[in-house]
Design goal:
The structure is a single chain. By secondary structure, this protein is of the alpha+beta class. Among the domains are: 164 residues, no CATH class; 114 residues, Rieske Iron-sulfur Protein, CATH 2.102.10. Helix content is 16%, strand content 32%. The protein is built from eight helices and 29 strands. The strands form eight sheets. A five-stranded mixed β-sheet has the order 2-15-4-3-14. A hairpin with a 5-residue loop joins β25 and β26. The chain is globular.
Length: 402
């Protein structure tokens, strides 16, 4: 080969080498192609939920929230409270803190109670009668503080709330924003205990009770949705009117459960099953949990089942609650009173007390605890129920009068 030919070949090789060094790596080429403007956008996780909204999107504050609550001592409330009246109890987050009792009959008329403590921290107690669901939410996201109110819309028959700071939409059971500036954000819950006035007033004689002096002219002796003490009202019988995103026949639609979402997992304890057994241990995701019946209140609390760096499982032996790992004895409030773990306390979980049909509609892959011998597994999501698309006629049609 001539010298000129060799030089030409060498120059070509150098040129090819330079082009190879300047070319983007394969991973960069893949990244570029995946960001192609013509590529379809990722699916909207809230699109299906927004399609199922029922009601008037323009309505706000019907019914009106209680924004200036007054509280009275137990002795005063006992003058008119029925012993079997249902109440929600907010137990203190710290030892010696105040106990608050909220009569459910007041919340059935207003659905939202906005509170503010001495330090200015906001929180809301919420109740959606059509799904029988109770939830307490802290009124803060980062540096933003707000109160909640009701909208005229429902999702899976559950009231959709809005925050007054941004007008974003929050289904009451989810506590997650599905539309608005705070879309995708989640509110932090605090625990509420559903029980009756007689046991609650006896357990906490120094509690502060929400007064009927709410600023509205309302008959709180009558619940337009019916009664939990009868078998022929909305709370206890009949099917939801839909539309419902998912149905699940493992329990009756109006049976009550305590539900919680842990990361990507969801778990519901059948309240009837926990009452029968007294205690229920289960795991959601990697989170060990325990539900414990308080017989004196006929109410169930849920806890993270961990103490001293170990996961615990529990059983009831006679009238005592024992953990199987250390054989320590525990009070129904989640504190060890005897044994190696004496003095340690389980962390309370803010479980959602609600009707089964509503929990399963929002969390179609939920695990369900119905007893220690029964499989704890999720079932494939059931079919949607289009329902009648009409809200029940017993719903109050106007806001309470001022």
């Amino acid at each position: 080969m001539s010298l000129s030919a060799v030089l030409r070949a060498g120059a070509l090789g150098v040129l090819l080498l330079l082009l190879a060094c300047l070319a983007p790596p394969a991973s960069a080429q893949l990244t570029t192609s995946s960001s192609d403007p013509a590529a379809p956008p990722p699916p909207d996780p809230y699109a299906r939920l927004l399609e199922l909204l029922l009601g008037d999107a323009r309505v706000r504050e019907r019914p009106r929230a209680v924004d200036a609550p007054e509280f009275i001592p137990v002795s005063d409330a006992s003058l008119y409270m029925d012993r079997d009246a249902q109440v929600l109890v907010e137990e203190p987050a710290r030892e010696g803190g105040p106990v608050f009792i909220y009569p459910r009959d007041i919340l059935a008329r207003h659905e939202v109670l906005n509170l503010q403590d001495e330090a200015g921290a906001r929180r809301s107690v919420t109740y959606s009668p059509l799904t029988g669901s109770v939830a307490g939410y802290l009124g803060a996201l980062g540096a933003r503080s707000f109160a909640l109110g009701t909208t005229g819309q429902f999702l899976n028959m559950n009231r959709v709330l809005y925050d007054r700071a941004t007008n974003s939409l929050w289904p009451q059971i989810m506590g997650e924003c599905i539309s608005g500036p705070l879309r995708g954000q989640r509110l932090e819950r605090f625990a509420l205990l559903w029980t009756r006035w007689g046991p609650a007033s006896g357990r906490w004689p120094g509690a502060r009770v929400l007064s009927r002096r709410t600023g509205f002219r309302v008959n709180y002796d009558r619940d337009p949705y019916g009664s939990y003490r009868r078998d022929d009202t909305w709370y206890t019988t009949g099917d939801p009117r839909g539309p419902i995103a998912h149905t699940d026949a493992r329990l009756g639609p109006k049976e009550r459960v305590l539900g919680l979402a842990v990361g990507e997992a969801a778990l519901a304890f059948s309240e009837a099953a926990v009452r029968q057994r007294g205690v229920a241990s289960a795991t959601a995701g990697l989170e060990p949990l325990v539900a414990i019946l308080d017989p004196g209140l006929d109410a169930v609390r849920v806890f993270h089942a961990e103490a001293d760096g170990r996961a615990l499982t529990f059983e009831r032996v006679g009238d005592e609650i024992i953990d199987e790992q250390t054989r320590s004895r525990w009070a129904v409030t989640g504190r060890a009173v005897e044994g190696r773990l004496r003095g340690m306390a389980l962390e309370r979980v803010a479980a959602m007390d609600c009707m089964w049909f509503a929990w399963a509609a929002f969390y179609p892959e939920t695990l369900l605890w119905t007893g220690p011998g029964n499989p704890l597994e999720a079932l494939p999501a059931g079919p949607a129920d289009p329902g009648t698309g009409v809200l029940p006629t017993m719903m109050p049609s106007t806001a309470p009068e001022m």
